[in-house]
Structure prediction request, 143 residues.
Amino acid sequence: MTAVSSLNYTVLNLLTVFVGCIWGYKMAESKWATVTETNGITVAEMLVKRLEAAEIPAQAVQESAGKAFGFMSGPLGTAYVRVPEQYLEEARQFLDVEEPANTDDIVTCPECDSEIELDETEWEQGWFTCPVCETHVSLDDLF
Ligand SMILES: [Zn+2]
Prediction:
């Protein structure tokens, strides 16, 4: 009885190690997908740090064309935030939710209490039409 249990235990252990190896191998082999484009590698690296803090593996990549044409490289070239394909959806959601710029653009409709994300045009013109209740809302009334 004891011998059988300990044998099972050993098999289980070996299986765990084996599965762990395959998983590690798959992680190394996985394709990297672009989550977002940023203006400069510094911003991309910031986003990568936030993703990594959320346990999503990520890397910041500078546009390769920038390296070919020296004048485009440096801190202002286009950079990309990339994650393994299987994390793409998670990473996109995470960055959208956490993006401070996005939350700044959200206002609450005084008529129906919907949270609406305004774009630049709407901020400039000073009003928007609520997509939920179709009320014309002046931004002066909100602030
Ligand atoms: Zn509304």
Remarks:
- The chain has a mean pLDDT of 79.
